[in-house]
Every structure is written in C-alpha cells, then in structure tokens.
Design goal:
Layout: H1 7-31, H2 33-42, H3 48-68, H4 72-90, H5 98-123
Helix pairs in contact: 1-3, 2-3, 3-4, 4-5
Subcellular location: Membrane
Keywords: Membrane, Transmembrane, Transmembrane helix
Organism: Natronosalvus rutilus
Length: 137
C-alpha cells in the first residue's frame, strides 16, 4: 500500500497534519470552556460544558490516535461521527442569515471534508502504517 516512493512519508505527514489540527482544536476547547459552552447552549446542546469538555477529549484523543497509529479505527471512526454530528448540529447555515450563514457554511463544509478524511483513515486502518506504533490494527 505504501510502496511508491515517498508514500510512507506523505502518509505520515497527512496523519500529523490532520490529527494534529484536530488535537489542537480539542486543546482549544479547554482554553475557552465557558465561551464554547455558551455557543453550545445557544445551539441547543444538552449539558453544554460537559459537551465542550467531552468533544475536546474526543478531538485530542482521536487526533493523537491517528498521529501515533494507536487504535486508529476507533480514533478515525469517532472523529468521522463527531465531525458529521457537529456539522449538522452546530453549523446549521440553513437556519442563519447574512454573514453568519456564510461563516456557518464554511464551518459546516470544513467538518464535512474532515469527516471524509477521517473515513479515508478508517478505510485503511487495518493496514500496517509506516512510522506508527500500529497498536490495535
């Protein structure tokens, strides 16, 4: 699967970029729990603070799982589900107007293409990954 020249390094770079960005987003949840909880409450999430903390944990652990190659099927699957649910629940651009609608559509689309990437990682999670711990594959 990773036999072409540079495929192993490109795949590692993809894991670090994708997983790293998601883990960074998760860490940001902990830096502004109150602000994010207010937004979550505005969007109608139950237990907004707990939702922010749990989603932060999911993003950090899911991102790190892809970077390290530790239970990548679980990490990628959880990230894909989270990103789709978040896109639909948190970024409902169809209910917004003007600039808010554009901002929500941008966030929605980022979550959707992120879910697509997570599904791609899920699809190859049973292969041995180069430069990975390969635990749980």
């Amino acid at each position: 699967m990773f036999e072409s020249a540079g495929a192993d390094v490109a795949f590692l770079l993809a894991r670090v970029i994708f997983g790293g960005v998601l883990a960074f987003m998760g860490f940001n949840h902990f830096l502004d729990v109150e602000g994010m909880a207010g937004y979550a409450e505005f969007k109608g999430l139950p237990a907004p603070k707990a939702s922010v903390v749990l989603s932060g944990v999911l993003l950090v652990l899911g991102g790190l799982s892809l970077i390290a190659g530790v239970f990548p099927a679980i990490g990628a699957g959880a990230l894909a589900v989270f990103l789709v649910v978040s896109a639909l629940k948190m970024h409902d651009f169809w209910n917004a107007e003007g600039e808010e609608a554009q901002n929500e559509m941008t966030a929605f689309l980022k979550n959707v293409y992120g879910a697509g990437a997570a599904l791609a990682f899920l699809a190859i999670s049973n292969a041995a990954w180069p430069y990975a711990l390969n635990i749980g594959l």
